[in-house]
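About this split. The held-out portion is used to measure sequence recovery: a designer receives only the structure tokens and must propose an amino acid at every position. Recovery is the fraction of positions where the proposal matches the reference. Here is one held-out target exactly as it appears in the evaluation file.
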């Protein structure tokens, strides 16, 4: 019997797989099926979520974070009390009955209140860094309050949990909340804490040179400049509080590449002005994202647009629509490259991110930003429309004095993060592909999302000392921005979720973004939770759909593709309104035939060559 089988058998013995008689739609991704009208929870999914939550708790324990354990079931009092005593989070004077309503949002130190059922095992009186909830009943306000304060939540969830609460849980653990399973979870948390305490104690006795090597790895300072230390996003520090977030964002400036034209999709103008989701362009998304941060926090994050000679004039006209925005937007023109004959060419630009460094230095923008207290710049590629301004990453960079950080994703989707996404690893720069190339899983292990964080003082130091010269930067058409990365002392990569890497290079990409698969929330693209498949559908459109205008005219409305696995369309095909596509669909119109897909049809796992096949 394998170790996996033993663990699954242990889960089954706790009755963790027994769900409620009614399974909410959003919970079906965790269910194996139904039996006698009762939902059966997939034990493999439970194991994956349990392991992810344990890794998150371990990462926080390593940082000596504050935990709050919330229990509303008196049957588990003794179990949780034993756990808190063993991990050093128990205090008799604090382990009284508390009133949960408003205990997070009303005060930084909760007040004691009597309650019939609520018991919170809480060590320090400061706001917690993580909330662990064992019994999430529908009326509990603790989840809403923790979400409002951006406190990560680890919680057991059952098949009947409402969507409004489920969406606010950072690390859900789908399972039946039996006494046996709660004991298993508490035992896992206890062993996680004790293992960390043991490793911490042993590290004190480490030789000096060994500790220096560990610190060097943590800071991303690699002796081999052809290697990059990649940190999983799940191991980043917890989300900073409101005051800390405001302090971080005031040190940030965002720069978006805006030199790509939409000519390959038959669009005359900058690619950033193509409407992609809810009538918004990628430029609208980044502006809305910054506006949302300004409204939520007292901060000022300026936006720089790096234009080329072919996009500068059109972009200046587009910026007129943002005159009432509270975002400080500046347009920069990317410098031209001198050709071999000494003449400037509009089509030849300085390669990659070296152009950014040179341009902001020559224009004096770098000195202005430094005088304003800005410390880091987030460079966003023009092709990635899902880039996110993440204070968690910025907090980690500032705390560890990281000078250069690229966001990456694995080439193949790693559903349970069992391989690349779960641990700290080093990768050769040659193993990281550019987001714009068609990557191979054999040659490349990671893909650069096109989001780059750089320390502004490090840029100034390199340019002032002539250490970083544009002519010395060798850029491969395939590998990531590794040419500039070698010049920085501390450089790392962060393995971010796949949802932060969405390109816009073809009309098939545009179909995905304009469909019901994505919506926009405060400038961030949000994936429809109704889709259980973690990967996006594979869409291939023929030359008849090559232009944006062709795509919009041939689709009366975008189809429902929540259940779609793959779609291949060739020939003169026209789509009606309200169409639903599921599974694997191939539609090929014969030469000389106009094939019309009628309104409201549902096509599932079909090959269509004519009207009779619909």
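Reference sequence for scoring:
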């Amino acid at each position: 019997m394998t170790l996996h089988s033993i663990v699954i058998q242990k889960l089954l013995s706790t009755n963790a797989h027994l769900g409620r008689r009614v399974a909410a739609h959003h919970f079906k991704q965790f269910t194996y099926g139904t039996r006698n009208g009762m939902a059966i929870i997939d034990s493999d999914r439970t194991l994956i979520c349990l392991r992810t939550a344990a890794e998150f708790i371990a990462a926080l324990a390593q940082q000596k974070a504050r935990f709050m354990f919330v229990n509303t079931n008196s049957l588990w009092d003794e179990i949780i009390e034993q756990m808190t005593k063993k991990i050093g989070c128990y205090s008799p004077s604090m382990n009284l009955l508390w009133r949960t309503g408003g205990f997070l949002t009303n005060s930084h130190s909760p007040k004691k209140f009597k309650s019939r059922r609520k018991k919170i095992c809480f060590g320090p009186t400061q706001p917690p860094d993580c909330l662990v909830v064992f019994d999430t009943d529908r009326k509990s306000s603790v989840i809403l309050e923790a979400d409002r304060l951006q406190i990560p939540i680890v919680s057991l969830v059952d098949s009947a949990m409402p969507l409004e609460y489920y969406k606010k849980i950072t690390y859900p653990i789908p399972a039946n909340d039996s006494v046996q399973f709660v004991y298993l979870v508490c035992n896992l948390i206890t062993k996680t804490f004790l293992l960390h305490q043991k490793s911490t104690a042993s590290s004190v006795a480490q030789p000096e040179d060994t500790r220096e090597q560990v610190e060097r790895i943590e800071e991303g300072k690699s002796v081999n400049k052809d290697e990059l230390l990649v940190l999983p996003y799940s191991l980043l520090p917890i989300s900073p509080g409101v005051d800390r977030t405001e302090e971080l964002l005031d040190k940030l400036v965002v720069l978006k590449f805006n030199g790509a034209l939409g000519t390959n999709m038959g669009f005359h103008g900058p690619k950033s002005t193509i409407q992609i989701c809810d009538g918004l362009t990628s430029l609208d998304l980044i502006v809305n994202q910054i506006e949302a941060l300004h409204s939520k926090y007292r901060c000022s994050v300026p936006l720089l647009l790096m234009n080329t000679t072919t996009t500068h004039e059109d972009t200046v006209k587009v910026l007129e629509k943002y005159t009432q925005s509270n975002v400080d937007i500046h347009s920069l023109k990317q410098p031209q490259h001198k050709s071999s004959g000494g003449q400037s060419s509009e089509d030849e630009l300085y390669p990659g991110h070296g152009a950014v460094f040179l341009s902001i230095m020559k224009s004096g923008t770098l000195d202005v930003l430094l005088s304003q207290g800005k410390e880091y710049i987030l460079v966003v590629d023009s092709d990635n429309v899902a880039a996110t301004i993440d204070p968690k990453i910025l907090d980690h960079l500032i705390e560890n004095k990281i000078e250069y950080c690229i966001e990456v994703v694995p080439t193949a989707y790693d559903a349970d993060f069992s391989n690349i996404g779960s641990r700290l690893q080093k990768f050769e720069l040659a193993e990281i592909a550019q987001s714009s190339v068609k990557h191979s899983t054999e040659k490349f292990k990671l893909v650069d999302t096109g989001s780059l964080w750089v320390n502004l003082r490090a840029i100034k130091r390199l340019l002032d000392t002539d250490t970083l010269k544009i002519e010395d930067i060798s850029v491969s058409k395939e590998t990531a921005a590794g040419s500039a990365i070698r010049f920085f002392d501390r450089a790392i990569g962060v393995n971010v979720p796949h949802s932060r890497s969405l390109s816009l290079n073809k009309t098939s990409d545009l179909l995905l973004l304009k469909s019901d698969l994505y919506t926009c929330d405060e400038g961030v693209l949000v994936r429809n939770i109704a889709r259980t498949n973690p990967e996006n559908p594979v869409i291939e459109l023929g030359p008849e759909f090559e232009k944006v205008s062709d795509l919009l005219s041939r689709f009366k409305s975008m189809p429902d593709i929540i259940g779609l696995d793959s779609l291949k369309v060739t020939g003169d095909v026209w789509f009606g309104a309200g169409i639903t596509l599921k599974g694997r669909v191939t539609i090929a119109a014969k030469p000389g035939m106009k094939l019309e897909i009628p309104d409201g049809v549902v096509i599932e796992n079909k090959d269509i060559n004519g009207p009779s096949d619909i």
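Annotator remark: The first helix runs from residue 3 to 13.
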